[in-house]
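Box 3.1 A note on notation
Throughout this textbook, protein chains are presented in two layers. The first layer is the amino acid sequence; the second is a token string describing backbone geometry. Keep the layers aligned when reading.
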Amino acid sequence: MTKANSVLEIHLGISSRGREPEVLRLLIELGAQFVGAEEGSLLVFDEAKKALVFAMTTGSKSSEKALLGQAVPVGKGITGLAAQTREVQIGAPVFKTRQARPNKGPEAVLAAPMLIEDRLVGVLTAVSFRSDKEFTGEDAVLYGRIAAVAGVVVDQARRLSDLQAPRRGGRSQRRAGADERTEFEIANSVLELTRNKPHAKARIARLLAEIAALAAE
């Protein structure tokens, strides 16, 4: 098990044996590509420490190695503010992390809370190292929807895990199993689509955002 998968399993209950880590990484890649960011990250919420922990970074292997496991307190910087307010935040970075590029930190940050219903489970971020880069309101809406899809993936993983436990109160295990299998098929379909058409990731990201918007109406 890699350190990244360990962080996901400890804080989100996502097993490295499933496909959810791969789907989450894909969502980060899609979102970062769509908003023109050089890197994207997933930070998971450590409830005990009231902090966000870097679990995954795309766009740079050196950045992922440097950031993995670092913590950002809730309320600190753009990322911590997104967690605190449960709203997408845009701005210049004000909380410093150890970077793979010590002489060149991020110039612009976009952070979207990842929620299961009203409960915070993490934050998705996109960063740019270009001095002329500014994320837009449209970028914020898109990233918020990508984060919503990521929240569904985490919720799905937890429900699938629950199916392996004895039946509890509430809806029947048969009904739960049907719902979870359907959600898993959706995630796998997105994964296969991007594998078959890697050049169309930006279009796929937009479609996911539009589907998320329709589901919220």
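The longest helix spans residues 137-162. The CA atoms of residues 110 and 157 lie 26 Å apart.
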